[in-house]
Specification:
Layout lengths: L3 E13 L3 E8 L3 E7 L17 E8 L6 E11 L1 H4 L2 H17 L6 H15 L5 H15 L21 E4 L4 E4 L7 H11 L4 H4 L5 H18 L3
Parallel strand pairs: 3-5
Antiparallel strand pairs: 1-2, 1-4, 2-3, 4-5, 6-7
Helix pairs in contact: 2-3, 2-4, 3-4, 4-7, 5-7
Length: about 230
């Protein structure tokens, strides 16, 4: 049978039998894969080093006749050690992997692989605040699924103004002028940049980004729930 080579990120690992594991992996070329890693739980397994969580690896595999293929070899490309060195980053990493795994089909576009890799890059960079990453990740899921909210005009079809305060109207899915609203020009700028596809590490360089992102996290979470993400 033909052996295939690709880059992969582990989504989940399930122990099987005495020494095996069934892996769920995300790849740029083949979407999600389910592979049997035979003997990987043995001390001297050559596969173990390349199937760490929070890492990117090159894998060689054989497609199975059924749903589960076979992992042949692995080579670790990058391990994001700072993620596992911080409990908050580790827990958020698990949460975002689970969310992405839930919302993607068996053959997701390559952009989802890129999203998860960039998420690891941001989590690994300790100067990037976890709430900024949470905010950014949710907006990227919305962007990739085609659900970008109106960030140009308010619910009266007037252009969003730098000197106004806003609240978000979920009935019209647009901002509404409100003197006591929790959102201003800084929030809208950050939202626009995120939906343009800029990385979390890029957003972290914007003055006040952490506080702005923290304000927007509940809004981003409500958006994702509204669209089943």
């Amino acid at each position: 049978m033909n052996q295939l080579v690709t880059t992969a990120i582990i989504l989940s690992r399930t122990d099987y039998g005495e020494a095996d594991r069934i892996l769920s992996l995300l790849t740029p070329e083949y979407g999600k894969l389910s592979l049997m890693a035979k003997g990987v739980r043995r001390v001297k397994s050559k596969l173990a080093g390349g199937i760490e969580l929070f890492s990117v690896s090159e894998i060689t595999f054989i497609k199975g006749r059924g749903a589960v293929g076979t992992l042949v070899s692995t080579r670790l490309i990058k391990y994001y050690e700072h993620i596992v060195g911080d409990l908050n980053r580790t827990m958020l990493g698990y949460e975002l992997i689970k969310q992405l795994n839930k919302v993607t089909e068996d053959e997701p576009e390559e952009e989802y692989f890129d999203l998860l890799r960039e998420t690891f890059e941001a989590l690994d960079e300790t100067s990037v605040h976890v709430e900024l990453i949470r905010f950014w990740f949710g907006l990227q899921l919305l962007r990739l699924s085609g659900h970008t909210p109106n960030l140009q005009t308010d619910d009266s079809d007037n252009k969003l103004a730098a000197d106004q305060r806003y609240e978000f109207n979920f009935e019209s899915m647009a901002f509404r002028v409100s003197p006591d609203g929790g959102f201003g020009a800084g929030h809208i700028k950050l939202l626009r940049l995120a939906f343009e596809g800029h990385s979390a590490r890029f957003l972290a360089n914007i003055q006040g980004a952490n506080a702005l992102a923290a304000d927007c996290v509940p809004l981003a979470q409500q958006w994702t729930l509204t669209h089943g993400l």
